[in-house]
Amino acid sequence: MKKLQFYLSGFLALQLVLATGLFWREHRQQEMQQQREPLLAVETGQIEKLEISDGDASVTLRKQGDTWLLPELEKLPANADKLDTLLEKLQGLRTGWPVATTDSSRERFEVAEDRFRKRLRLYTGGEKAVAEFYLGTSPGFRKIHLRSDGDDAVYAVELSSFEWPAKAADWLDKKLLAAGDVEAIDGPDYRLAKRDGKWQFDAGEAPLNSGEAEQLADALKNLRVSKLAAKVPEAEPVRVKVTTGSGELDYEFLQADEHFYVRRGDREQLFELSRSAFDRIAGVRNEQLVLEEKQETERTAGEEPTADSAAQS
Question: What element of type H or E holds 122?
Fold first, then answer.
């Protein structure tokens, strides 16, 4: 009996110890949660310049008005949506339990001043950075080790260093030549206009293959380039004029060997684009847009019968 009481007393004592430990652990976690502070102390809307380096290459992105530009790439527009999303991720990062705080850990996790995977410097307007981060090794899926300049603590945060390329070409806004909503298209041997929501030949001289016209308009609306062209080829351009709600856009498409290029009248630069994007616009001619008689017959046959024909049947 005494032995049973001894075991029960020990079991109760163990439960009390475990309960106390869990209580203090939960209390400490709540306390740390309340003490967590943002790693980026300024609002993203105040950021006007960003420098990214990987040790070998570097890129600068500078904000002008509401537009992010690439000074090293002829001041072309950067992919603002991508950058704003990443800055919001930075804004959401908080301090917590550090992975390490020693000097040796900086080297091991590659977040040291002279050894890092990526370094981010953010500016609000002056020449002194308001925030500087070192991005290092990855402890797991979509996580990296991060350290703020001037802080010994290394944190594991939900971020990826691959999202922060150090080359200007990787930040180029690939849709900078996209036409947007198209109202009329003047091609090499055709003229199309959109009336009452439907595409038709401007002069109405023939039935139009509306599917082909929609594909052409969509290709212009969402036109994407791949990169800035290194040189201007000697080739005869295919010219396409596009009318939008905000004005006219003049395009020139060129082909040299297996390379394809495009230029728009409001920009002096020449860009490369994919062959498929080139073919969807520069390869279109009148004969592809005309609805063949067979297609017209099949379309008419597929229409719902009139009241008279239904009565006869």
Answer: strand 118-123
Residue 295 has pLDDT above 70, yes or no: no
- Rounded CA separation 308/81 (Å): 57
Q: What pLDDT digit, counting tens, does each position of 53-89 carry? A: 999 999 999 999 989 999 999 999 999 999 999 999 9
pTM of the model: 0.79
Number of H helices, E strands in the chain: 8, 18
What SS3 state is found at 179?
coil
- Cβ neighbours of residue 121 under 8 Å, at least 6 residues apart? 50, 51, 129, 131, 132
- Check residue 181 and report its DSSP letter: S
**Span 1-12, pLDDT tens digits:** 555 555 555 555
CA 269 – CA 38 distance, rounded (Å): 41
Which of 81, 61, 83, 82 minimizes the C-alpha distance to 72? 61
Q: Which residues in 93-124 are b (16+ Cβ under 10 Å) and which e?
A: bebbeebbeeeebbeebbbbeeebbbbbbbbe
